[in-house]
Amino acid sequence: MNSRELAVAILALSISLQVSAETSAAPENVVVIEIRDYQFMPAELTIAPGTTVRWENHERRQYHNVYFEQLGDEPRDYFWPGEYRERTFDEVGTFEYICEPHNSSHAMRGVIHVKE
């Protein structure tokens, strides 16, 4: 194998590993909600029972949390840019949530509908 063939093989392997890492980041039953500009995107989501929702913080500097008061939760800890929180929904229902520190100032809220 000459140096050009070796370089092409290394590049192909590198691309293959990168694609593999990107596609395996979130399992099939994980749905991502991005947090950006003080918004949950999407703010409303319909999922099947057993699905895990991952809230990913894509802000530049701002922390957030995901608080389900109706479920009896205590306000959850804050997570910073590049971090995420997950919750699995096993029961059918409608679940409203807020970002507790930014609900009043930015109306930061969302809803998860779990349907069969």
Summarize the structure in words.
InterPro entries: BlueCu_1, Cupredoxin. One of its GO terms (cellular component) is membrane. It comes from Azoarcus taiwanensis. It is found in: Membrane. Keywords: Copper, Electron transport, Membrane, Metal-binding, Signal, Transport. 22% of the residues lie in helices and 34% in strands. It is built from 2 helices and 7 strands, in the order H-E-E-E-E-E-E-H-E. The termini are far apart. About 16% of the residues have low confidence. The protein has a single domain, classed as Cupredoxins -  blue copper proteins (Immunoglobulin-like). Strand 1 and strand 2 form a beta hairpin. It is globular. The strands form 2 sheets. It has a 4-stranded mixed beta sheet, with no helix packed on it. A 3-stranded mixed beta sheet has the order 3-7-6, with no helix packed on it. It has 116 residues and is α/β, with parallel strands linked by helices. The longest helix is centred in the first third of the chain and has 21 residues.
